[in-house]
Design a protein that fits this description.
By secondary structure, this protein is mainly α. The protein has two helices and no strands.
């Protein structure tokens, strides 16, 4: 028996006797998990709000330091 033939047999035996730990059911797109959707959009909106607030604060500090205001 050649090495490739032995390897192919070992792969077939290994796949038949084990189950992958990473298999899961496909997500149901017709019925989304609304809690996760809300958390994702809420977190995104919160982070954008912090970004705009920080930008406004930075612009104000820039104007004060350079005597523009």
């Amino acid at each position: 028996m050649t090495f490739s033939h032995l390897l192919t047999r070992a792969v077939h035996i290994n796949r038949a006797g084990s189950r992958s730990a990473f298999t899961s059911s496909k997500p149901d797109t017709a019925n989304p998990n609304w809690l996760r959707v809300g958390l994702a959009f809420g977190t995104s909106a919160f982070l954008w709000g912090l970004l705009f607030k920080q930008h406004s604060s930075d612009v104000h500090e820039y104007k004060v330091r350079n005597g523009l205001q």
